[in-house]
Amino acid sequence: MKYNTLGKSDLQISEIAFGCMSLGENTLENTFLVHRALEKGINFFDTADLYNHGDNEVQLGRALKGKRDKAVIATKVGNQWRADKSGWDWNPSKTYILGSVEESLRRLDTDYIDLYQLHGGMMEDPIDETIAAFEQLQQEGKIRYYGISSIRPNVIREYIKRSNIVSVMMQYSLLDRRPEESCLELLKSNNIGVLARGGVAKGLLAGKHPEPYLNYDAAAVAKAALAVANISGKEHTLAQTALRFVLHQPAIAAAVVGIRTQNQLEEAAGVFKSAVLTPEEINGLQQSIPPNFYDQHR
């Protein structure tokens, strides 16, 4: 496994991160997967208080019991469940964040969170108030570092200017190259690590039947998937090729991969047994489909 320093932090994170959102409610199965991930060298686990009404954090905390020192835990805040659990509302207020961290710490059964992330963000938010909450939590030792999860370039720029974020989580894949336009280079130049989610594009780059995705129609998706297939085989599975494409970007500290089965875990962890894509292979993938761009929140 390869490890990268996450931005300006001292966190050393595995280049393949365990996306916990897909974990179920079977504690024994989850514990097996998490322990197996640690054995494979995966030390970075990403969850959120939103996932399964907080139970996802509970499951991760149980799985890491006795192994907390071997893991880097990231979770997220900002989406407040309604009392009747019918949905959630956006709440980036300082009061909500300071209260929510206590619940996440309890559910995760830990004294500190390595990376606490704002789970979204809008220009209309009280951004300085939000930042003040994260800074206070860092000073209190309840979190080690903080970041944001956002695909909005205008919001990302504000946090770069006004905060001490060490990371930005965003979607990036062969079928979503929007971050290439400006975000990746901007974040790299400011020494802020990128956590890339959605690397296999909901499975469309890993064998799933083609269907429309973002601004691409099914035919365009099929063409990109074929380009992935053409350089896969003995050296890479389809998913490994798609993830290798993501990781070729220097700005990206880790690819966050949703894992719910042992096969998915073994495949993700096996990325580093597969050959690095050559410049010619990267170019071939890039030429298979026109890049897309953000058309909002620029």
UniProtKB/TrEMBL annotation:
Residues 15-287 form the NADP-dependent oxidoreductase domain. Coiled coil: none annotated. InterPro entries: AKR (IPR020471), AKR2_Oxidoreductase (IPR053135), NAD(P)_OxRdtase_dom_sf (IPR036812), NADP_OxRdtase_dom (IPR023210). Pfam families: Aldo_ket_red. One of its GO terms (molecular function) is oxidoreductase activity. This is Aldo/keto reductase.
